[in-house]
């Protein structure tokens, strides 16, 4: 399938025939599109050669299924698209970003947990209280009756 490039030309994007790409099931996308009325997909499949949606303005309502493999994400992976979605949010635009979550988080979210971002936490060693070499982003999942 050819894609429209930023310069207005149409160019095919060729991928390894043995590589598989996964898309959200159409019924799930259609339900989301019916609710949010998407007018831009910054992560089209297939991605046009040299296309970098992280440097262009997004639409008013964006469907964002970010790439995860380096071959598919030459300009940045999920974190880069999350930062861009936040940037566009501050311009008054909506983005629906689909990201995988570990099973433990899925269980908590399905149970109705509230999520509070805790920032980057530098854990401490239990015996010595020595800080870990690096701080990692954390979240609190709160289940209240």
Q: How many helices does DSSP assign?
A: 3
Based on DSSP secondary structure assignment, what is the total number of beta strands? 6
Query: Within the largest sheet, what's the order of strands?
Result: 1-2
In helices, the fraction of residues equals: 10-25%
Share of residues in strands: 15-25%
Q: In terms of structural class, how would the helical and strand content be classed?
A: alpha+beta
**What sequence of helices (H) and strands (E) makes up the elements?**
EEHEHEHEE
Cα Rg: 19 Å
Largest sheet: 2 strands, antiparallel
How would you describe the shape? globular
Average pLDDT reading: 87
- Return residue spans where pLDDT drops below 50 for at least 5 consecutive residues: 1-7
Task: Give the terminus-to-terminus CA distance.
Answer: 51 Å
Describe the structure in brief:
With 145 residues, this protein is α+β, with helices and mostly antiparallel strands. It has helices at 26-36, 78-89, 103-110; strands at residues 2-4, 10-12, 61-64, 94-97, 114-121, 136-142.
Can you put this structure into words, describing what you see?
Helix content is 21%, strand content 20%. The protein contains three helices and six strands. The chain has a two-stranded antiparallel sheet with strand order 1-2. It is globular and about 55 Å long. The chain starts with a strand and ends with a strand.
Feature tags:
145 residues, 20% strand, two-stranded antiparallel sheet, single chain
């Amino acid at each position: 399938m050819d894609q429209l490039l930023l310069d207005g030309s149409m160019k095919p994007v060729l991928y390894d025939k043995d590589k598989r790409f996964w898309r959200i099931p159409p019924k799930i996308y259609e339900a989301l599109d019916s609710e949010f009325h998407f007018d831009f997909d910054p992560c089209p499949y297939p991605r046009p050669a040299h296309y970098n949606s992280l440097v262009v303005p997004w639409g008013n309502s964006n469907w964002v299924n970010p790439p995860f493999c380096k071959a598919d994400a030459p300009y940045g992976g999920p974190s880069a698209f999350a930062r861009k979605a936040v940037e566009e949010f501050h311009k008054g635009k909506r983005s629906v970003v689909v990201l995988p979550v570990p099973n433990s988080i899925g269980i908590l979210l399905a149970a109705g947990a509230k999520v509070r971002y805790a920032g980057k936490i530098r854990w401490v060693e239990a015996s010595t209280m020595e800080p870990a070499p690096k701080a990692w982003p954390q979240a609190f999942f709160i289940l209240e009756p």
